[in-house]
Input
Amino acid sequence: MHDNGKIVWLRAAGVALFDESGRAYYMAGSYADVTEEMERRQLMDHLAFYDGLTGLPNRFKLQELADAAIRRLEPGTSLLLVFIDLDNFKYINDSFGHKMGDDLLKAVAERLRTALRDDGAVLARLGGDEFVALINGGAPCDLAGFERRARRAFIAPFDVGGQQFYVGCSAGVACAPDDGRSFDELLMKADTAMYRSKGDRGGKFVRFMPEMNRVAVHRLRLHNRLRGAIERRAFFLHYQPQVDARSGALRGFEALLRWRDEELGLVSPMEFIPACEETGLIAPLGEGVLEEACAMARRLNMGARQPLKIGVNVSVVQLMQSGFADRALDIIDQSGAAPSMLELEITESVMMDAHNVGVSQLRDLAAAGLDIALDDFGAGYSSLNYLRRLPIRVLKLDKSFIDRLPEDIDDSRLIHSIVQIARDMGLEVVAEGVESAAQRRALSEFGCHWLQGYLIGRPMPPEAASLAVADWRGFTTLH
Ligand code: C2E
Ligand code: MG
Ligand code: MG
Output
């Protein structure tokens, strides 16, 4: 220790001369202050094993810690590896720049660290928007506690550069020794489990299960088969009717994408849309959908007694691509359909800030006369406040809301008040997934404007939709 209280590193070197009996008769030595060199070496170690942005252990350090912890496992104890991946981080990074992205990652790291709480647990950053927590199974900081706190940590928006972002996360869990005895194996399995949790918003932790390997293989196959699917003309649209909740008069149709693959058969859009978003295929695919839907809107409206709307789903990935609005308006223009015949359905997956490129494109589209609908309301964050910032005209209530109608009193009350608030805000409300006459009656009483669901009609091929328009009768003859 130096007089100034600082610890210094000294390198001692010395020589001794001995007489015949082995006694030292001459000794000389020196001490050199090597503090600087040691600090440099520590810094190098730090750079090699810790992430520069967040200060968390990096992949190498994590591997070392995990493998050591696995070796130390005693019978009856376990080690949990939680793989956490942010949802939609890429779009924030792409549209707001890397500085904002970096600041957001730092803030996320801080919240996760607080949520982990336990000193014995490790939080590391693998890279990008991927974090890993190592937790001793059965220790005071159990998985359930961490999950609860981590999920809570993502509820409030992140303040970055004066803007607010709502960020979700997905997490998968693998456990040693059950799922594997090496870091690599655990990581791979936790990653597979994490993929399963993607999509069901809300950041629930998903435990790895052996059958998920099959799912991972399936996903790979899906990605392979998607390549070239547009050229093979394997995609097509079905149309599901929407009607007036009181009279049953036809409002229009929602265009729903279908994919029939020679090997995989009919694949659900819930499966292939996320895959198309990951691979970038969604951009050309989405443009094809819009083209087709515009042609249909024009055809249907030619023979219709009243104007009909066609709803088109737009992925947030499309919306975040600059130039999307211009291309969409070009497509509509060339098709000869009027913008007012189209309704774009968007989801609230990324809570969009007022300055976001997605929001400004929505404004341009709304200004050109298209209707914007917020899809799946009630399935995600569902902030009515957020609606004020977007040029939304239509609210689509998610099927999960409607399912428990009218028996569930709480859901009924909730839907009733949402419809009232939406009406006060000047919005139109579409209820999705209406399957029973009792649901139809309740929704119509609550003041819901439009209904869509199997009760009214299933998604159908374009020819069937055209025929349905010609002799649509409304509720009196329907039920
Ligand atoms: P969504 O936009 O919320 O579409 C409604 C989904 O609910 C459709 O499933 C529809 O078939 C289903 N549905 C409608 N009524 C009922 C009902 O009464 N009971 C039940 N059980 N289900 C009902 P689908 O066609 O499988 O589409 C799933 C999701 O895939 C859509 O949800 C939408 O988010 C996405 N999607 C579909 N087509 C496209 C597209 O062209 N582009 C994009 N980006 N996404 C699409
Ligand atoms: Mg939709
Ligand atoms: Mg929906």
Q: What stands out?
A: Residues 282-302 form the longest helix (21 residues). DSSP finds 18 helices and 18 strands in the chain.
